[in-house]
Amino acid sequence: MLSKCDLLRHLPPEGIEGILPYVRKRHIDTGEILFRAGEPGDALYIVAKGGVEVLASSKDQIEARSIARLDGGAAFGEMALISGHARTATVRAVEGTDLIEIAKGDFHKLVAHDQQLAAAVHRLSHERAIDNLSAGGPNPATWADVASASLAHLSRDETNKMLAEAGKGAGLAIVFGNILDTIPGRLVIAAKFAGFESLSLTLMLGMFLGGIPEAAASGAMMTRAGYRPNTIFALWSAVVIVGILAAAAGKAFIGTSDSLTALFARALAGGAVLALVSHAMIPEAIHGGGSLTVLPIVAGFLFALYLALSASLV
User: Fold this and answer.
1) Distance CA 264, CA 310 (A)
2) Mean of the pLDDT values across residues 103-127?
3) Domains in the chain: how many in total?
4) Cα 218 to Cα 170: distance, rounded to the nearest angstrom
5) Which end of the chain has less Cβ packing within 10 Å, N or C?
């Protein structure tokens, strides 16, 4: 019966089995009220056998009006659980009915560990609120609030999911882009290394400053995508280790920055930097900061040009 429920049919058999410890069986007789509008929500219910009707009533109406009937496999009672507000309608058995009951605390545990279930719950709540509005039932403001809240939650879930997926790809792209940049760059630097006095201050400054936003952006994206801090630290530590090995190889095998290998390495490093910036960094920066982000990008290139000209004129 759980596998036939709209909220749970996406789960595999082992997933359904994991829910069993949280469910209880309950029977209500014909005409028995399960809960009334205005009462606090304490459980989610699924019709196992029989049927119930949803009654809407206002303060001005003595007799409640039936607005829906729910039969086998139908879930109900989720609105009060996800909103934290009182029940929005009264539910009464139309015949002897067997129910599956999941208590409020257990319901929140299940939703917290299953994003598909959370989305299905909010989608059902939204559709049900829209149906009640269309039926012209009483208390339209209440149903409108439920529909708006459910739609906002669904949009937020979808947005977070997309951001997490994008963050995973862009974060790794920055890491691998840095590796591609590090290997040829360190080969060239080590090939012409003759002592610390031969190193360019502007080059060291540029490499140091350039690594900070790349690492920060990558770390933030991968954190959003669900990577653990230790994993992020290990990935960026790999960049450092690769750089050390590349520098040792450059000093041992290239020997001069005028060799064809050194020129190729320099060209590869430049291409890797351009690919990194155009594919991962600029799109993410514009997405997060808007079009004005292009101004500091241009300022950064101008500052790099100033450092390069200053070094050449000294």
Assistant:
1) 26
2) 78
3) 2
4) 7
5) C
* Cα–Cα distance, 213 to 227 (Å, whole number): 19
Q: What is the pTM of this model?
A: 0.44
CA distances from 96 to 30, 50, 52, 265 (A): 5, 6, 9, 79
Please report the pLDDT score of residue 138 as a whole number.
Answer: 53
- Phi/psi at 98 (nearest 5 deg)? -100, 130
Q: 22: burial class by Cβ within 10 Å (0-12, 13-18, 19+)?
A: middle
* Residue 254 pLDDT level (bands cut at 50, 70, 90): low
Q: Is the pLDDT of residue 26 over 60?
A: yes
Pair (178, 121) in one structural domain:
no
Say whether both 204 and 116 belong to one domain.
no
In terms of domains, do 210 and 80 share one? Answer: no
Does a structural domain hold residue 131? yes
Given this model, what pLDDT does residue 179 score? 76
State the residue range of the domain holding 265: 160-313
